[in-house]
Amino acid sequence: MDELNFIDLFAGASGMSEGFIRAGLNPISHIEMDKYACDSIRTRAAYHYLTKNGKEEFYIDYLKGLISREELYKEVPKKILDSVLNIEITDDSIKSIFSKIDKTLIDKKVDLIIGGPPCQAYSLLGRHHENIENDPRNKLYIQYGRFLKKYEPKAFVFENVPGLLSANKGQHFKNLKAYFRKIGYEVYHDTLNAADYGVLQARKRIIIVGWKKNNDFGFPEIKKVIEEFTVNDILQDLPKLNPGDAMQVAKYTIPKNDYLQKFELRNGVDFVTQHISRQHNERDLKIYKTAIKKWNKGEERLRYPDLPKELKTHKNETSFTDRYKVVNGNGVSHTVVAHIAKDGHYYIHPDIKQCRSISVREAARLQSFPDDFYFEGSRSAAFKQIGNAVPPLMAFAIAKSIKQLLCQTKEK
Q: What's the helix, strand, coil split of the chain in %, to 5?
């Protein structure tokens, strides 16, 4: 079978793409409007190129801070870096995007398109906005469809939050399916939980799969991974941090355990990067300590109204009463979202001796990013990219099933 090529739309930091690359598919282009996410994609593209060509020492030197990003990129063909397009997909930009992608295609074809448009409009928080029906993000599936019409891939994989199904009383999802069918694709969907595919996080997502009508395989059978691992398995080998500590490069404290070995989060590099924690004020630390004690004693969540008066800063005691939430070390984490870039109150480390919110690297591990995946930009930019990402392990499970079916497709 010839190499299977894909385009990643609304790529974020390329978590979804990472899973498809791991399954053996080849990225033609990534399109993403966030600058820092694009920088992260380019750095990851450098990693894939250099390791494939026996030059991984340049990447390791970059992670250690021995060479600059500019020096790293000099070791990578310009066409690979140029395939990452830092541009918003709009009516005005789409022709230019097509032109740039066409230059990278040459004699290749696009077998698959993947990606999930920004989902804030459909999230439970986003749906409190009165103007949801007029939110331009609700029509980004039409931009997605224009890529399908242009490149006619055999299939597509579209990821989003469960709120997509009920937005505008379900009408929005009906419109989306009708549009994709109109342009020649049979459409199927299912709600998947990342925790079923090796990710130590309860993260439900809608996965929409479309097939060209002459190759209709329905919704793929995606094999679940049934293992009894917990969040503590991804925390125990990392150095302990105090609030505000920042370890850009650090040694692991113990050998890799079964989880890290099986799912390849520690995948060859003998150090960890971006183990960076936030600074917290004294009031928050007192609240964190209370929340950790409650959780570790009886898995009871701290409710904001139950705090002593001197620790409260909000008059509203009826909304967001669980605004301080400890990550469950003895099970799977609750969903990691982009709000982690704003504050860490919803992601408190379960170890009371550390008493802080989780670090950048800990958040990345909860999303199943391997430790050699580097997020460009500030700490907040890294948290945002992690919170918005599709977990690579979940994407890998989907990709294996899709690849198997793509290899059975008939040529047009």
A: 40, 15, 45
